[in-house]
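Sharing a chain and its predicted structure for anyone who wants a worked example. Both blocks are below, sequence first, tokens second.
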Amino acid sequence: MEYVLRTDGLTKKYKKQTVVNNVSLCVGKGDIYGFVGKNGAGKTTFIRMILGLARPSGGSFSLLPGEDIYSARRKTGSLVESPSLYTNMTARENLRLVCRISGEDPAQTDELLEMVGLDDTGRKKAGDFSLGMKQRLGIAMALVGDPEFLILDEPINGLDPTGIVEMRELILRLNRERGKTIFISSHILGELEKIATRYGIISKGRLVEEITAKELSEKCAAETILRTDEPEKAAGILRALLSTDRVEVTSTNTVIISAPVDNIGLITNELFRNNIAVSGINTSDSGAERYFIKKMGEG
């Protein structure tokens, strides 16, 4: 796999506290890599080390192989925590200033504003923008110079539902139409599930798992939740019927089938045939969220 970022045992300690602990991960070219973890798990500290804003205590990393670290960072755009905006300036003025500071052509300003949906803001000051508009302006600033790699730290945190949809569509557009590899940290699991192609799950500074979207989908197919007074007996019958061991008794009257079920009637008929009464049955798509939550507690 061709990669844009690879870390090997990356570690950051502050006095006696280890904030990032021996993290080894790989971001492939073209990925939308979801870096998943609770608040305080070490996501931002990890990002700050990659961007040169914090010095690692141990381990190493490689950014854009074939480039020296200074060149690689020039080809990496970032939005860390919240964008640094001049609130008394317009979106266009903010962008032109970033272009001048970074030695880039300010002629790209209009294209970038259109790309992030801020081309109609005119003379409105950035201080009067909604949070979603500020985040999109921050991404436009990160895109100055047409970077190959984009690192976004919690870009949807605090946004309203409309802002979340706008941000999701922008990220997908940058990946699919502009070919950007994107590393996005978040604790909002439902949104990452809609866009990420690969995940790294971090808990208490440790990377507990890397998994592709396809692998996650296979592990977290829509679940069937069944209620019966004889859950253990029902689970045994269902494991044999469905040829899977992904049947779990979770309480005194609940059985969860974490595998595709094409015919609900087949299940109920087989249980009735074995004199097992079913008091309720429904399907749920929350398997992925439960999977993330479980893994985030493994640190």
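Comments welcome. The longest strand covers residues 3-14.
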